[in-house]
Amino acid sequence: MGLKMIEFHLDGRSGVSPYQQIVQQVRNALRLGLLREGDQLPTVKDVVATLAINPNTVLKAYRELEHEGLVQARPGRGTFVTRTLTDNTLAAHGPLRQDLRRWLAKARKAGLDDESIEALFLTTFRTAAQEDIA
Amino acid sequence: MTAVLQAHGLGKRYGRRWALTDCDLEVPSGHVVGLVGPNGAGKSTLLNLAVGMLSPTTGTVEVLGTAAGTQQAKVGYVAQDTPTYSRLSITDHLKLGARLNPGWDDSLAQQRIQHLGLDPKQRAGKLSGGQRAQLALTLGLAKRPDLLILDEPVAALDPLARREFLQDLMQAVAEQELSVVLSSHLVSDVERACDYLIVLVDSRVQVNGEIDSLLATHFRLTGPRRNAKDLPRDQHVVTESHTDRQSTFLIRTDKPILDPAWNVSQLTLEDLVLAYMGRTAPAQPERPLLEVHR
């Protein structure tokens, strides 16, 4: 086995299921360039031995990542990254962050405190996400 | 896929008290099953029936496709409080295991003892609780069973030992093709380690199924006050509570929830388990309910 690239952590209070947390952590690592094409994901055995979670949870997460075309399982060898997520979105981060900062400044000016801003963001985000699904 | 555990109308009575009633189960293989419920709910009774240490008063129970207790070589059982022989050394335990079990995997047993950093000459009585639990797990795994049944394996352990025990158990599941049934009164153990759930309260199975599908079919509805009988027929009410203006329902349904008046939220496994537990025992504060450890 090669270098150990990333390690997973589980947040018991997040309300996000363990398998989704693993999927998100891999996607994040891909986005941030921590994982690159050809890198190996931790083996199922390694993950369950560190996190004390059900092997099926890890398999399910890896299957989803494979379905998304981000990784590929090579029987007997492990699961490898086939695509990165850093490519074109990274360039868009800067301007988006600026927009977000402007929006935050506006929200503060309107008298919203941190909690109200978070609540507003989350509800809008969720509604938009649900509308996308429907 | 054959069922690892199958029960039809299974019941067990001690004197006048029913420890288990009307139990119907069909647990497919390849799962780590969490059997949860408060103390005294009948968890140990169900497990003892499954390994053939008890015989049913009513109904039948099959394990790995044949009557319980007939395939002892294929079923590993770690009883409550992980019993070991306190005067025997670890080596003695492994020798005993090798003599009693036709499929004994001695190299696996030796490797595990070495990995755990235990002295093989040590007597079991001198081991810590966590080490004793690990020894019992070693005996259960080295038997190379198709099904491993563990009764409250981590209840008496401190958080670190509990974590290590579950890590090793999960690693074994990943390596060996092994189905596991473990009982616990801690939702947090079950949440991480298990992918199948059986909730047992007051000697009855309240709900069972794959955890993912249970979570995908249970919802909390909050909204303006409404009566349970006015809900669509495919929405099965688990619990309900009302104020003058508001109603909160916890429902099970396979269908989408279309009514826009409801604020629909997903449940955590803990919410779900507690809902089924609270449903049957509304006013029994003297009884220890399911503990919640995070």
In short:
The complex is a heterodimer of chains A (134) and B (294). Chain A contains 5 helices and 2 strands.
Supply the CATH superfamily name of the largest domain in chain A.
Answer: Winged helix-like DNA-binding domain superfamily/Winged helix DNA-binding domain
Q: How many domains of chain B, as an integer?
A: 2
Shape of chain B: elongated
Q: How does the helix and strand content of chain B classify structurally?
A: alpha/beta
Largest sheet of chain B: 6 strands, mixed
Which CATH class of the largest domain in chain A is shown? Mainly Alpha
Secondary-structure element string of chain A: HHHEEHH
**Spatial strand arrangement across the major sheet of chain B:** 6-7-8-3-9-10
What portion of residues of chain B is helical? Answer: 25-40%
Please tally the β strands of chain A and state the result: 2
Number of helices of chain A: 5
| Structural class based on helices, strands and sheet pairing of chain A | mainly alpha
Q: Return the CATH topology of the largest domain in chain B.
A: Rossmann fold
Number of strands of chain B: 14
Percent range for β-strand residues of chain B: 25-35%
Q: Mean of residue pLDDT of chain A?
A: 87
Oligomer: heterodimer
Structure description:
The complex is a heterodimer of chains A (134) and B (294). Chain A has 134 residues and is mostly helical. Chain A folds into 2 domains: 18-81, Winged helix-like DNA-binding domain superfamily/Winged helix DNA-binding domain (Arc Repressor Mutant, subunit A, Orthogonal Bundle), CATH 1.10.10; 89-133, no CATH class. Chain A has helices at residues 18-31, 44-51, 55-67, 89-109, 114-133; strands at residues 71-74, 78-81. In chain A, strands 1-2 form a two-stranded antiparallel sheet. In chain A, a hairpin with a 3-residue loop joins strand 1 (71-74) and strand 2. Chain B has 8 helices and 14 strands. Chain B has a 6-stranded mixed beta sheet with strand order 6-7-8-3-9-10, sandwiched between helices. In chain B, strand 4 (58-63) and strand 5 (66-67) form a beta hairpin. Mean pLDDT of chain B is 89; it is low at 281-289. Chain A binds chain B through residues 10, 12-13, 15, 17-18, 44-45, 48-57, and chain B through 30-32, 163, 166-171, 173-175, 188, 191-195, 212, 215, 266, 268, 294.
